[in-house]
Amino acid sequence: MCGVVAIIHCEPSISSYQYQGEVQGEVYRALLTLQHRGQDAAGIVSYDFNSSHFYEEKNLGLVSQVFNKENLSALKGRMAIGHNRYATVGSDGRRDLQPMISSYPFGVAMAHNGNIVNYFKLKELLKNNHHIQMLSHNDLELILSLWGKAYLNSEKKIGPFTFARCTQALQYLFETLVGAYSTVGIIADQGVIAFRDPSGIKPLCFGKKLKEDGSFAYCFASEEVALNFLDYKFERDLLPGEIIFVSLKGEFHSWVYPKAPVKSSCMFEWVYFAAAESSLEGRSVYGARLALGEKLAIKVAALIALSKISPDIVVPVPDTGRTAAIALAEKLRLPYREGLMKNRYVQRSFILAEQNKREKAVELKLTPIKKEIEGKNILLVDDSIVRGTTSKKIISLLKKNGAGRITLALSCPPIKNACYYGIDFPNSSDLAANKMNALELAEFLGADSVVFIDQDDLYQSIYNNKNKSGLCTACVSGNYPTSIECGEDFALLRENHRG
Ligand code: SF4
Number of folded domains in the chain? Predict the structure, then answer.
């Protein structure tokens, strides 16, 4: 999972335009608000119409570590794209960082969020049939190459850039790429482009800002939180399979792939990944987490009624377990206590790429408040169990500090299946719930019991949709929105291409 942003400051009269240079600062601030989506690396690419030049800065580390006043001010131009990296395909090497630039056709830069499941198959195909050699292990390079190849093939003679030709080339991508790819890009001298895969797995929205001088600007971002922070008025989410192009003059074009299947937005965004203050597809992330907590309360109440558990307090695992825990405590009329405090300077452990990094981060990031937990039976609320690493450490920490019986309540159903779309669990064998039922999990984690929300409640909390449509729930249900024919090869080869 990554964060992407694209901003263009439009001006109908390009020749008289005196640009004041604020776009790179806006992209930087947008990336700061999207930092939770990826902490491995950050990058910005801008394009300056006057000098006909791309400018780029990208490196490993947090946004605040990669950028400073000097390197930001060197990113000239009034259109720019940015990326926060969460390692999926590709290693931690600099060559795999985004955004990426291609010289043809026209000069194009792109950044994306997601994974191409048939990446390795297409990479071989490009090499063997078209003599195109990838220079990185990042699937964005494949998107760039395929788009360039398709664009050039769509015309016998390459003329000026047109939106019609651009959509023709992207339609070829929609029919060739399998997976998730919410993408933003810059076309040199033309404008900014944004598109979302036909299943709409990863989020992408846009907003518009009218400036005092009468000009206006567009911002595309993974989450609404970035638009709000920059005072862009939220317009809407991109539709699955939608392509939007905004020219430097401010002309707005949109086209939607007519064969797009049913939308399948990643449910994990609401459960864990997205910022609580964002709304996705019209559903508030915070609101969905409260609803998940209320549904979970019904399951826990049934266990209390059967005298199977008798919690004294509700304790959230900060931060993403907190909202569901508040709703659950209110519903059960149990005291809510912050029994664990978070060191805000340690990165999210699940996001860290390697297991040993994850374990160290758990040790560092949470400190128990002994007086609140000592001798108490705890209803510990977390969003999910992936590998079980974090939950096991937390339960052991609570027990070591005098907690009584611990029930672990999860606002996500058991994650049993691999995700091939950009969340970092492409091997189902790594998943704790893939091998164990709730009883076995409790034993493995050192808890007295484990209770999960079920899939119906998950749907209702996010969409309140009886048809159970609109969400990707593949990691809990096994129903993948795309072909996963290449899924296992993808997981295997991906491990080999990690740094
Ligand atoms: S498989 Fe799970 S984590 Fe991956 S996109 Fe689907 S819902 Fe999200």
Answer: 2
